[in-house]
Structures are given as structure tokens and as C-alpha cells.
Sequence to fold (772 residues):
Amino acid sequence: MDGRSLFSGSSPLAAVHPAAWLAALFLLAYPAFASHFFVFQIGAYSLILGTIALSLMMLAGYGGMVSLAQLTVAGLAGYLMAILGDNSVGVMGLGWPWWLTVPVAVLGAALFSAFVGAVSVRTEGIYTIMITLAIAVAFFYFVRQNYVIFNGFTGFAGVEPPRLFGLYWRDPVPFYYLALAVAAASTAAVAYAARSPFGLGLQAIRDNPRRMRALGYNVTLHRIVAYFLAGAIAGTAGVLLVWFNGRISPGSVGVDVVIDILVIAVVGGMRHPIGPFLGAIAFVLLENFAIDLIDRERFNTVIGLAFLLVVLYSPDGLLGLWVRIRTKIRATRRVRPESGRTEEEDPRLVGSTKET
Amino acid sequence: MLGHLKRTLAAAAIISLAAPAMAQDGTIKMGALATLEGAFTVLGEDSMRGVELALEEFNYEAGGKKIELITGSSDASPDSAIRATRKLVEQDGVQVLIGPLSGSEGLAVKDYAKTQPDVTFLNGTSAAQDTTLRNPADNFFRFSTDGAQWMAGLGEYVYNEKGYRKVAVLAEDYSFPYTQVFGFLEPFCRLGGTAPQDARFWVPIGNKDYSSVIAALPDDVDAIYVALGGADAVNFLTQYEQAGGELPLVGGSITVDQTVLGSKGRTRDFVIGTPSAGPISDTWDNPGWADFVAAYQKQFPDGFPSPSLFAHGYYINTKAALLALNEVDGDLSDGGKKFREALSSLEFETPTGKVSLDERRQAIADIFLTEVIEGPDGGLLNKTIKVVPQVNQTLGVPYEDFLAYGQVGRENPSCE
Fold:
């Protein structure tokens, strides 16, 4: 049963669960039957937010480090795109070609993330959250008050994706596939890394850093490398985000958005790379349609209540809810009166998460 | 395995059902976008009252068709404004959109409007200058005036009547106050007034502590021009009064509005005599305005005592859309082309006088010069000093010359 992990990089293709094939098929065929609005603003946007939340899930789920600065890392990549590439505001905009700005932006974001890691990895739990939150808030105020480089409150507009192969990459369908490719590659990378010696080491450090140190691991460096990799994922998503919006301003990296990413990761579930994407879909759907469900003065209450219910009834988020429903269904299918056990825990989801 | 298949297919079916809803024959879908979350929530709610007031006046009908109102919400950031706009246009299929509320959102929605040539956009109350001045969108109309227009007559008034020659400036650091500062200083400095760069103070929105600004205020200025809104204005006034400040004030359009004047404490005495200017005046003695206030109070007993400039701006833009729809008999089948032609030549009486559009689809309207006085019951009021008739966006200067002034910003005009 262990071989049926979704998008598991290390298992042979034949062992991939049929649901994963179906999901992949559905995601690939999605633009064929969905409207442009659903392809772009729901589909592509969910994939981008999911990828940023994935970088948080990777740090929090495998490394036990809840970093609130992942959206800030993505935001830095977006700002770098506007500063190094072209924008329509007339501030900075060095006009570098896209094949140079994209790698530099992603690398810059990854290095910034490594810096966040270097500052915060010697702390645990609530202190990590506080330090990374402080960095996120400091970045927000810095870009809002710096006019020479970051153009202050106004930020940048007119940040365009390149025209390649005769396609305009912000058109809904090409952009959707771009976001899908990035999300799939990131998910595969995280799933693969989780089973690599590096990822196993990271999980072991999460469970018992002292023992790992005694075994000769450089715990601090290991964690900083994890931050670097998470930063590369968040940075890539940040590039997509600035192409999606066409603009970036301090409001794009504000504290409320930082918290949104945490909400997405928690609601989706921190135990498997697919969780953040479930959370992102739920978040984007609610953000767009809650206002239609109830009178407009109360729709934020609906969003809050929905997330509260998920977290209340399933501490593992939507992913945990899904596992519980599935085990319920299985339990009712094969009723074995002699066994008093009705809850069948999924070994894959339980095995890797013992918080210290 | 079969179970998985079933579930996945069911999910696919649910998602694919959600295709954009097309307008039924006989109804017109109108979207309204305002800040119903975030720091400007209260203002956004009053904006929606303005939209509903206009729709109620027309009985939710125009050109023989029913108007279906769909609302959208942003948090005053351009990103969220675009997401909400895109949902209203691409998912809900609105053909006419009213909004947004704040300056930077307006610039973003104008850019989006260019990608949707068949949808007609009317501004809410966003008052940044470049929404219509530079690179305007053909389908974006603004029947409300911008932040520089709102200042019309104030610079001349304080120079000639109050005799101020040198002012300090304190404003929030974003596009709307830039526009206001420009609108005030341009005539003031043309007459010979000065506002040195080192006496201009720019604070972030939501700033709580003004002690460093107050300490740095120069002694040799005649007055302080203050363009802060809501809680920021109350905080500054309280702290300046406590610090023993004695300089007279000149107010931006939302610096001495009802939310500030209604606050308790000694700040109240301190602001008496402060001149200001804006698109409305609470105490204007005019039957049209009185009817508007009465209708607002009747329909919204829970609203403000008197409609804010946000309710006013959304009301005017919604009413313009409805009047133009009447003119074309609600016919939007040509992608709204006829409708937009009707809008371009529309000219009508609002509660604050006649409004018409210039060639960049920007309103030309009356502006009110006011001064804070103590009312008969002890409350503070804005007394109407003067109505400045038919102010256009270039403040009476030819378009090309006006462009030469450059984009509004912290150092424009230089005024040394």
C-alpha cells in the first residue's frame, strides 16, 4: 500500500495510484471544458497559491519549522521581476531579458529564504513563527517606505510575461499550463526530496534534533538548505504571481496575505504535498464566491467559519478529512464484527508526523 | 478503483457546471465594486448605499429592462480590486460596472478595462488623476471629480482671503493625497505662495504617532496643509493640540469631514475656521441637495447623518449609467457601443449641480469651498463659503500645458 503515494517520485509508474492518473488527466483537460474565468482566476491562481503554500508545507511538515516568511520570499521574487525586467511605472525597470530576470529572481528569493532560515533555525515553535513574522512585517514596511528601489506605496505595474512560441503567456490557457507545470514539478520535487536521504534527515531532525546532532549531522546547515530549497519553490511561484497580477505593491506582501498562506497550508493539510493545493482551491473558491452565498456584509464571516469548521473537525485539514471519510467508507464496506477497530489509519500519513 | 473514478467524475461534473451565467433577456447585469473589507470598510458600505439610492430612484429599471445588481468587494489593494472586477465581468457577466473606491484601485481597473472592450466601466469615487488624464481607457467613464479638482479654489482662497504665504504640508504617502496636494499647491504657488520641500511630511496610512512630525514643523510657516483621512486626521489633530500647536490648518477633502468633526474632545475647538474644499458640502442650502439628503436618510436610517462623498460619487456614477441606459432603451446588444456614446454626451443635474464629461470621459462639475464653524447646537459643521462652478480636470489650463506639469508626486509642484 505504500507505493500508491500521489506523484511519488521514487516509485515506478505502474505503482502510481489510479486516482493520481485521473487527477492528472482532469487537470490537463480542465481548460477544455472550463470557462476562461475558471481556468485563470480559479485554476491558475489556486495553483500559484498552492505552490507558495507547498513551500511552507515542506518546511513545516517535514522540517517542523513554520515559516511565515514564504509569501515574503515569493514577493521578493515578484519585486525582482519588476525591478530587473520591465515595468510601466518609470521607476527602476532595468530591462533585462526574461531568461535572465527569471533565474535571478528565483535565485534571489532562494538566497533570501536561506537568510531567513539562517536567522531563525536555531529557534523552535512559536519563536520561529515570531521571527519569520517579524521579517515579513519588516519587508512589508520596507517596500512601502522605500521609493528609490521599491517605489513605495504604489509599487510596480505593467509587469508582463514574455511572448514566446507565438503565445502570450498571460492568456488564460497558456498561463494555466505554465502554473500547472510549475506546481507539478514543485510537488514532484518535494515528494522526491522527502524520500531522499536529505529529506529523511530533515524529518529525523524534526523529530529529534539532539540525536541527529549526536549522529554527526550539521542540524543548522541541514535546515538552512531546506529553507533554500523552499525559497526556490516560493520564488518560482512569486514570478508567476507577479505575471498573474501584472503588478506588485506592498499590499501584495502585507500581513493579511502572509496569514492567508498559513491558512491555506493548515486547511489543506500539512502531511502530504497535495494538501496545500486542496487548501488553495478551497480558499480561492470561497474568496470568489462567498459574497454570492450571503449578504455582502457577512461574507468574510462565512470564509472564517468554513475554515474554522475544517480545522475544528479535522486537525489535519482537508487532507485529513478525506482520509477519515475514506476509512469510514472502507470500514462500513467490510464490517468485521469481531474486530472492534473501525478507524483504519493510513500508514503513509501517520508514519511521518510525530511532533516532538 | 471504481469508487475513485466515480468521485473524480463527480468532482469534474460539479466544476464544469460553473460556467459563466449569461444575462437573460430583459435584464441588465450591473456590478458594483467597493471596499467591503479592510481599512475602508465603512466608506465602502456607504458607497453601496449610493448605488442602491440611485437604483431605488429608478425602481431598479432602465430602458424598459430590469437591473440586476451584483456586488463585489476589495480590500483597497489593486490586486484584490482586479480579482473582484474579473469575477464580476468574466464570471457573473456584468455589462456595466460601477467602481472602485480608492485611487490606486482606479488605476488598476482602468488598465483592466482596456482588456474588456465590450464592458462599460464607470468610476466609483477613486480620485487619482491619471485614471483619466494619461492613457485613459475608451470604456472607463468618471462622472465624479478627481482629488485635484476637489481642491479647486482653495489655494486662491487661503492666499487672498486668509493671507497665507508659506505653508507646511502633511499628507499620507500615496496617489490620492499626492493629487490633493498638487491641486492645492498649484494655484497657491502660482499666486506666489511657497511650500518648501523640507516642510513637506509624508506619513504612511494608519500612522499613529505624529510627535516627530510635530517636532519638525518649522516655525516660520503661516499654516499647515493637512491631507489625512479618518483616524489619521483625528490622531494628528489630537496630538498637535496636546503639543500646544498654534498654526492654523488648511484641510484636504476628507481631513475635516463628518467622521473627524464628530469626534469628541478639545480638538473640536481647534479646527474651527479650517478651510477645505471637496465635491460635496453637508450644509449646502439647495433644494436638490436637501432632497438627496432626505432620500438618503429615509432609505438608510442606519447610515451616516448625511451622505458621505463616497455615497455621493457612487450615486452620481450609477445614475449616469441608468440615464444613458434609458436613452438607448437598454440596448447593449452591440457590446455597449451605443450606450457608451450616450454616456459620452450625457449631461445631467446631480444633487451638487450640473455634471458633464470632457473628451477623456472625466467629469466637469461644481466644487464646494467650505470652512469649519460651530453650529447652533454646538456641533461642528462645514459652512459653504463658495461654489466653484464647473471645474475641469486640467483646472482651466489647456490639456497639453497641464500635462507639462508632470505626474503628481511628493515634489510636484516644486513651489520653492
Observations:
- Residues 1-11, 339-356 of chain A have pLDDT under 50 and may be disordered.
- Chain A touches chain B through 42 residues (CB under 8 Å).
- Residues 36-63 of chain A form the longest helix (28 residues).
